[in-house]
Design a protein that fits this description.
The chain is mainly β. It contains one helix and eleven strands, in the order E-E-E-H-E-E-E-E-E-E-E-E.
């Protein structure tokens, strides 16, 4: 079982930045390193959508709406994933969720962290 914990959300003005962190608590290297890690977000009334993902070898993929503004990264030694969010817009307001998929097809979710972009 993998426990994912997000942090770093908050209230920010348009144009501002936040960095989200996802920690895989008590994960061992052999479990964490093969994970495909992702950030999803969900605004009230909308479906959860993929924001960015990073594979075990560092390959990345981004939603068109965040390309050039968000950067996903991972630190295998610390069992962490990050989402650097720059040039935030009102429409980035959502709950952001950490997701991990293992090679056996199991997926895990964190509890989410709220991001609010408001002036």
């Amino acid at each position: 079982q993998l426990t994912l914990v997000e942090s770093g959300g908050g209230l920010v003005q348009p144009g501002g930045s936040l960095r989200l962190t996802c920690v895989a608590q008590r994960a061992i290297t052999s479990v964490f390193n093969p994970l495909r890690l992702s950030w999803y977000r969900q605004d009230s009334g909308n479906q959860r959508e993929l924001v960015a993902e990073i594979g075990p070898r560092g390959d990345t993929n981004y939603a068109d709406s965040v390309k050039g503004r968000f950067t996903i990264s991972r630190d295998n030694s610390r069992k962490r994933m990050y989402l650097q969010m720059n040039s935030l817009k009102f429409e980035d307001t959502a709950a952001y969720y950490c997701n991990a998929g293992d090679p056996n097809g199991r997926t895990y979710w964190g509890q989410g962290t709220q991001v609010a972009v408001s002036s």
